[in-house]
Amino acid sequence: MNHDPAATEDSQTSRVRVHAPAELTIGRLIRLGEGVGKVVYASQNWVVKRERSPSEILALIALWKFIRKIEHLLPGRLGERLLEKPSRQIRLLRVLVQGFMLVVPRGVWFATHIGEMWRVHRSRDERGEILARSRLAGEFLTPERIQFPPVRVKVGGWPGWLTVSEATERVEATLHQRLTDLARAKRFEELEVWLDRFLDLRPEGWRRGVFSIDSHLKNFGVHENRIVLIDAGGLTDDWAEIESRLTFEEVVKEPHIQLGLGAVLGARPDIADRFNKRWKALVNRSEVRRHWPANGS
Fold it and tell me: 72: pLDDT confidence band, cut at 50, 70 and 90?
């Protein structure tokens, strides 16, 4: 990857640059994707994020709950598609829901289950970022992150521009997208190699005292021949949470389904079976404890 030369040797070591990469300010950044808490924009080599406001997040959670409730009434897999790949229709609905919610005092919403979900999301997101920066940064497990003096960048769609002071190295694709593309091309041997790499990656976090309670493959990215964590919201070092997740894993019969691989491996149940057996042999109390640092909980 070609990095911006406008940085001193010392600032490169600390990932602080004198100037933002030129490609961030030359043109308009494309809208690359979005999640509950953020929207991501990208240049050729870097991504920047816009954090959503609390009212945006509350509206998205309310909309998500509503779609889940009526999903069985929608034709085909429309509900699932709307939730997995947000569209302009979802964005419009979010704006409408957000406008409606503004009529009611925010404190009322925060007192509901929607507000509780928002607090959990915010807490996990903040904790995950702290853990990723303190225990995974500088490793091969996360994309490179750089900081620079605040600059104004143009972005596609609303709000049209952002002021940013940080960027993250852009991955080639999410792991889920890479596996989906390989399945469509019927390159199943290569697909299984990536599944093995993903399984090999999991203990690397455990050795550093962190565990992901949300290992959906959309939270991981592909960079050359390695897999990196691109959404740290599911990271925890709390053994009560880890134990709870591992208890859940004990009763999951087909882990590939919960990871979003149902459609990807639909034509290859043999690969799904091999993956599930390796997952069950790896993601359990004894294996996590075996890899956990001696000074951990």
Answer: low
pLDDT of 221 > 70? The answer is yes
Same domain, 159 and 182: no
Residues 150, 257, single domain; the answer is no
Final residue before a domain boundary, out of 170, 193, 212: 170
Nearest to residue 283, comparing CAs of 234, 236, 237, 249?
A: 249
CA distance 165 to 196: 36
Share of the chain above pLDDT 90, in %: 60
Domain boundary among 110, 138, 170: 170
CA distance 253 to 280: 9
CATH of residue 219's domain is 1.10.510
**Structure tokens belonging to residue 66:** 């509503």
Cα–Cα distances in Å, from 154 out to 1, 43, 75, 282? 23, 11, 38, 44
DSSP per residue, 39-95: EEEE-SSEEEEEEPPHHHHHHHHHHHHHHHHHGGGSSTTHHHHHHHS--HHHHHHHH
Q: Is the pLDDT of residue 10 over 50?
A: no
Average pLDDT (231-241) is 94
- 203 prior amide bond cis, ω within 30: no
Are the C-beta atoms of residues 30 and 42 closer than 8 Å to each other? Answer: yes
% of the chain surpassing 70 pLDDT: 87
Clarify whether residues 27 and 89 are in a common domain: yes
pTM, rounded to two decimals:
0.81
Q: Taking a C-beta distance cutoff of 8 angstroms, is the pair 270, 186 a contact?
A: no
Domain that holds residue 222: 173-291
